[in-house]
């Protein structure tokens, strides 16, 4: 009978209650960034990853491209976690030094981006990995998060 089915709810209803975090993902950061604000990205690295990226941008515009306050890119072949920014169409100097490469294929991860007055502080699985000093003056203009590449998103906060 349909009674059991109704009690569990249809897959369509579940989809509405728990929207899937589809990659590539683009979402709005309510009120923009400010000192003390933290962005949490939790996910699972794909089985055979090449790379994935997390960017905080000033809007979603593609043409002209929105300023990128920070772009984090995990490169698995080089075992690097690089970061950079792009202002008025110009990419800055890329930073790549890290004490170790924290991501493992087919394993979950937790990235926290903490906004402080002079910098972003990046934590992976609870360990501080590096700082990235702000290149964009107006922190509140940083209002969009974009995530792409070889990962599944499980939680954003």
From TrEMBL:
Domain of life of the organism encoding this protein: Eukaryota
Record has Cytoplasm as a keyword: no
PROSITE patterns found in the cross-reference section: GALECTIN (PS51304)
Domain Galectin intervals: 25-157
InterPro entries named among the record's database cross-references: ConA-like_dom_sf, Galectin-like, Galectin_CRD
SMART domains for the chain: Gal-bind_lectin, GLECT
Residue stretches spanning the membrane: none
Keywords attached to this entry: Lectin
GO MF terms held by the record: carbohydrate binding
Pfam families the UniProt entry points to: Gal-bind_lectin (PF00337)
Biological role stated in the UniProt entry: Does not bind lactose, and may not bind carbohydrates.
Protein name as catalogued: Galectin
Encoding gene (name): Lgalsl
